[in-house]
Write a structure and sequence with these properties.
- This protein is an alpha+beta fold.
- Helices cover about 40% and strands about 20% of the residues.
- Strands 1, 5, 7, 8, 10 and 11 form a 6-stranded mixed β-sheet that branches. A 5-stranded mixed β-sheet has the order 4-3-2-6-9.
- α1 packs antiparallel against α2.
- It is elongated.
- The two termini are about 20 Å apart.
- The structure holds dinuclear copper ion.
- Dinuclear copper ion binds next to loops.
């Protein structure tokens, strides 16, 4: 399954198709205006460099100037803006419409600087990854827990703000299975650039498998290292922010759900992978990796760090 990087000109779903069409319409109109202005400029320059004195033609000029101002300054722009307006409303209608009654709802909440992802009807919670079945309308309900963020998966749809005060909906559909990179598209603090989210569209069977796996509580630790790690996870307070279903319940400070951490690709909003060495780097000095993060320094020895990482790596 290839990963599709951000490009609104490589659409993989109906909402993105429309956004691409809108882009080309605006590009075409912009090009048209550029050509008209360039030609008018050239004609003007040529006329004035001719033998006839400009003063002789003053009366002519006044009449044609008025026509130009009215035509190219008022009527032309009004027509172009009207075309762009209609095309924009038409293009937005696909991604703004509430999906059909039986479609899937995903609650996506922006945090500084990660995305919380909940499936209220399926009982699944994850972070920084949105999984969905291909070929189906999925209604994203976007909110923010703090400042304004914006959810943007260019291959599937336009941007939509995630606001603290209200819920915005964005309906997305992927034509086929695929993995798409998404970004926060609204400056939301110093780590705005490190607030990535991955959208994974599955075929039906593999989506059902993903849901079934993610409904399960966390796996029990099996080795001595993992057991020690799980204990440390609780003792050192990791579990007062992070939920690991079956072990900890989180707290007032929201942090990514770690129940199936090891099944995700990335941590820290896309800065690191969910592999052992990266988990180690993250836990031992989160502020060096991501200045400003709410993740606190955890006071652990090297051996304890090994145990913690062994436990986290087991959370498939
Ligand atoms: Cu969140 Cu930018």
């Amino acid at each position: 399954m290839s990963v599709v990087f951000a490009s609104a000109l490589d659409p993989r779903g109906p909402a993105a198709d429309r956004a691409e069409n809108l882009w080309w319409i605006m590009f075409g109109l912009g090009l048209f205006v550029l050509v008209v202005v360039a030609v008018a400029l050239l004609v003007g320059v040529r006329r004035h460099s001719g033998s006839e004195s400009p003063i002789d033609r003053r009366e002519d000029h006044e009449g044609s100037s008025r026509r130009w101002i009215l035509g190219a300054g008022v009527v032309g722009p009004a027509i172009i803006i009207a075309i762009v307006f209609v095309a924009t409303v038409w293009s937005m209608s696909v991604s703004s419409q509430e999906a059909d009654g039986d479609s899937m709802v995903v609650e996506v909440t922006g945090h500084q600087w990660w995305w919380e992802v909940r499936y209220p009807d399926l009982g699944v919670v994850t972070a920084n990854e949105v999984h969905l079945p291909a070929g189906v309308d999925v209604e994203l309900r976007l909110r923010s827990a703090d400042v304004i963020h914006s959810f943007w998966v260019p291959a599937l749809a336009g941007k939509r703000d995630a606001l603290p005060e209200r819920t915005n909906t964005l309906t997305i559909e992927s034509d086929a299975p695929g993995t798409y990179v998404a970004r926060c598209a609204e400056f939301c603090g110093i780590q705005h650039a490190h607030m990535n989210v991955v959208v994974v569209a599955h075929d039906r069977a593999s989506f059902d498998e993903w849901v079934a796996a993610h409904r399960m509580p966390a796996v029990e630790p099996t080795t001595a290292d993992q057991r020690a790690g799980a204990e440390l996870f609780v003792d050192r307070g990791c579990g007062s922010c992070h939920v690991v279903d079956g072990l900890t319940v989180g707290g007032d400070t929201p942090a990514p759900d770690l129940t199936h951490l090891a099944s995700r690709r990335e941590i820290a909003g896309g800065l690191l992978d969910s592999t052992g060495p990266d988990l180690r780097r993250w836990i031992s000095d989160p502020h060096a990796v991501k200045p400003g993060t709410l993740m606190p320094d955890v006071d652990v020895t090297d051996t304890e760090l090994d145990d913690l990482v062994a436990y986290l790596e087991s959370l498939r």
